[in-house]
Amino acid sequence: MLNPSPFAWVSQYLFGFFFAYGVYLPFWALWFEDQGVSATDVGMLMGLGFATRCVANLLITPRIHQVERLLPALRWATLACTLFIAMHLAAGANIMLLALVTVLFNLSFGPMVPLSDAMANHYASRGVLDYGRARLWGSVAFIAGSSVVGYLASQYGANMIVYTALAGFVLSMLLVMRTPINPPVSEASHAAERPSLKSLLCDKEVVRFLVLIALIQGSHAAYYSFSSIYWKEAGHPESVIGYLWSLGVVSEVLLFAFSKKWFAGWSLRTLFVVSSMGVIVRWGLTASTVALPALVVIQLLHGVTFGIAHIAAIQYIQKSEANKMVALQSLYNAIPLGAFIALMMAVSGWGYEQWGANIFWGMAFMGVLALFIKVEPKSKPVKDIKEFSQPEPQK
To answer: Is the pLDDT score of 395 beyond 60?
Structure first.
């Protein structure tokens, strides 16, 4: 166990990490609210976290380009996350201290997904692990984390949210300290010329792609920040809220498990249109009702609004010229999944305080705008959908 196989190391580390993430993403806004933080400030703090992760992934993560440095970097990042998550308890309701620990935590947290994915991809490219099977344990752990913390918080109070997240990071810390039997080692470097991020941002086709995916994924901002608060105010206990979040991840996992069968032959345009329609229906329903049967349908649509959009984005990147793929992946994670969601979280915090659940109509309108944007990469032959790796749950 101290020197596990690459598959065991990756899958077990992802289990510990995503258990903690399954606590953090659905319930952190509830913990902020329990400390007496206003809805506007909750949105600002949650948005600040996403913005910090964006900066970390643009400025810090790319510096760790040699595979030998992945394991030490993951160890330091996991240790820092463990310390900074605990510091939230000392911050209490002090908004300045909460902002400080939010920044420190997300500077450490941001690189963990791309670094662990890089480890998995290193081994997958050498045929020593199946990325999909290893990544699946992260999705299972996210479900476990959100379900467990929902029960604990409803029974013992909101501070269990921090304690449960801390337990997940302690587990991750123990797991990351082990060294796989085949530690990652670089092969002779090859100088593949890549376009700069600046040059890509001057490409109108790339900008259209980023705007389209930002509208679809950015529509989840109010959901990430305020759905738990909204549902709790409607009378649903934390345990039910945890199960609802878990159901969203289950729909995502099922969608990716059967994506090859269900979406074979679908065009990029079709995938984006279906996802955009899902955005309109999902957030329109969210704004209209808090009835439990409707919430089940709303959460099952997560596979459509997040999962199908992710499939389409990855397909777009894989169809692009080979020398652009890494840079496009970086922009995809940093802007639509980072900076834009951060902005929309701040906006939705203000909007939720002003209009309550009607803010979700604004999220639904983003799906309407997305229907009018068409993207098509210039280049490589279409890749089979079976090559798509599973995404990070609910981001």
So the answer is: no
CA distance 266 to 72: 41
Residues 6+ apart with CB under 8 A from 281: 301, 364
Distance between the two ends of the chain, CA-based, in angstroms?
31
Closest CA to 118 of 229, 219, 10, 272: 10
3-state secondary structure at position 379: coil
**Amino acid type, 328:** L
CA–CA separation, 295 and 9 (whole Å): 36
Say how far apart CA 105 and CA 302 lie, in whole Å: 27
Give the span between the Cα atoms of 169 and 123, in whole angstroms.
24
Q: What's residue 316's pLDDT?
A: 83
pTM of the model: 0.70
CA distances from residue 184 to 74, 75, 128, 180 in whole angstroms, order as listed: 13, 14, 12, 8
Q: How many Cβ atoms sit within 10 Å of the Cβ of residue 165?
A: 27
The CATH number of the structural domain formed by 1-184 is 1.20.1250.20
How many beta carbons lie within 10 A of that of residue 168, not counting itself?
A: 27
pLDDT: which is higher, 133 or 171: 171
For the domain bounded by 198-386, which CATH number is listed? 1.20.1250.20
| pLDDT higher than threshold 80 for residue 63 | no
pLDDT bucket at 387, cuts 50 / 70 / 90: very low
Question: Is residue 17 within 8 Å of residue 138, measured between CB atoms?
Answer: yes
Rounded distance, CA 328 to CA 331, Å? 5
**Confidence band, pLDDT 50/70/90 cuts, at residue 1:** low
CA 309 to chain centre: 13
Q: Start-end ranges of CATH 1.20.1250.20 in the chain?
A: 1-184, 198-386
Write the single-letter amino acid at 232: K
Q: Residue 242: enclosing H or E segment and its boundaries?
A: helix 238-257
255-270 residue pLDDT tens: 877 776 788 788 889 9
* Cβ neighbours around 182 below 10 Å, total: 14
Going 6 to 9 to 10 to 12, the CA torsion angle's sign is positive
